Amino acid sequence: QVQLVESGGGLVQAGGSLRLSCVASGRTFTFNNYNMAWFRRAPGKEREFVAGIVGSGTSTLSAHSVKGRFTISRDNAKNTVYLQMTTLKPEDTAVYHCAAAAGPWTRIRDASTYDYWGQGTQVTVSL
User: By three-state DSSP, how is residue 77 classified?
Assistant: First the structure.
């Protein structure tokens, strides 16, 4: 059984920073075989792709809304993916989920291709 566990969320003022972490575990789960991504869902809104990273860590992709402010990275030795968030805005308020996909990089934005999801961590940005 594969588990993804997020941490690092919280309440922060606009302009502040947070770093989210997601640790993957599972007896037969080979972390670097999976593309990883962060998605978010704000109240009353659809789930939104935030950023993705290929299994090797050599390629990343970010949503236009977070480009230049959020950075995704991974440490395959620690089975962990990170999301460094800076210059946070109130519109970044959401539950952030990490997800793992064995599917192709070309579909990194497509939530339906992800095999495993974490429970999420709340990020709240106040004015």
Answer: coil
Q: Are 102 and 82 in contact (CB under 8 A)?
A: no
Q: Which residues, 6+ apart, have CB-to-CB distance to 61 below 8 Å? A: 51, 52, 53, 108, 109
Distance, in Å, from the CA atom of 79 to the CA atom of 73, rounded to the nearest integer, reads 11
Name the token pair of 35.
């593309």
Summarize pLDDT for 16-55 with one digit per residue, the tens.
Answer: 999 999 999 999 999 999 999 999 999 999 999 999 999 9
Which backbone phi and psi does 105 adopt, to 5 degrees? -60, -30
At 102, the amino acid letter reads A
Cα(50)–Cα(57) distance, rounded to whole angstroms?
A: 16
In sequence order, what DSSP letters do the residues of 8-49 get, joined into one string? --EEEETT--EEEEEEEE-TT--GGGSEEEEEEE-TTS--EE
Show the tokens assigned to 18. Answer: 């947070």
Q: What is the pLDDT of residue 103?
A: 84
